[in-house]
Amino acid sequence: MPFPNHPTLPPATLPLLCALFTLPSQTSATTFLLPLPSLLTAHQHSLSTSPNPYSPHTPWSHAPICHHASGPSPAKYCAYTSNTTGALGFTAITTPARARSAASAMLAENPAGVFLSHLHGQGEGDAAWPFDVVAVPGKGMGVVATRRIARLEVLMVDRAVLVVDLDIEEEMRDRGKRINHACTPNAFVLFSPTGLSVAVKAYRDIEPGEEITISYLLLGQPHASRSSTLARWGFSCTCALCALDPAARLASDARRELIQQSAHRILGLWREGKVHDAISLAKKSAELIIEEDVWPLLTDEYALLARLSLAVGEREEAEEYGRMCWELLRDLGFLGEEEEEEEWSLEGLLEMLGGRGMYG
């Protein structure tokens, strides 16, 4: 679920995350399909180049190879390559105008600097990544921890080596999976501001030999919703949550449905002026979120409780919920480094979140 300043792609691209990781050893060769016009608009302030007058192809290493697309108004697309970007080099297939505008953003990004700063330390600091790609019974290939991975440790970083403009291709063709799905995953994916790099971060401690999983779905959905969505991708989930016995699964679904319904009920109470009742319901929803182990959903709930508490003059309680919200956003990597380094304040948090956690 995206938050302000959270570098992510639209939710519709989430099912494609499984195709982002092709890991022969510790280095991946990844293909991204990105809407480059959107990238240019979102990051225009950083998209400038400083051509080297001594090289006719700067900042690229080679002369671009170009072709005209077929169609009534054939556009010119070129392959632009840099052999000094990242461990494996970098190629972008796009129009000359977009290549000129986006070159610095595409070539200058350093994933380690984005995801492994002093604020997002590398946990135990091992030189090698703490995982291996192995055969997983019933799942094909999967990613398994080779040592203990601490909660919130960045365990994988990947940078695209090939970016293809979405105007050329409309969907991802390579569906090869390495990080498998679980409805209660132990890890999650973060995107860099440009969308060209990704990292995987642990939700909780992961033990040696344990499979690393991410969710291809939004968290908190009942079993029927999860199953129908996953069925469209051609598989049935056998994770621990989906494998619950019928009674336990019904109880879980009931809790998840109550969580989903609480927003509308809280809105109704707010409009009726029953703010204390709204606070009680929001607290109950937070308890259910914790019970269902989908604690990333607490960010909205804590922000809501902070706003409601302010509305009834409970400043101290509002500060408490606001700080919990801020700390959770920080831990999940949803804050930019500037926000992390600034002194925390309730008003600053609520202004940053805008309408999130706000009903009425």
From TrEMBL:
It comes from Corynespora cassiicola Philippines. Residues 1-29 form the signal peptide. InterPro entries: SET_dom, SET_dom_sf, SET_domain_protein. Gene3D superfamilies: SET domain. Residues 129-217 form the SET domain. This is SET domain-containing protein. SUPFAM superfamilies: SET domain. Pfam families: SET (PF00856). Keywords: Signal.
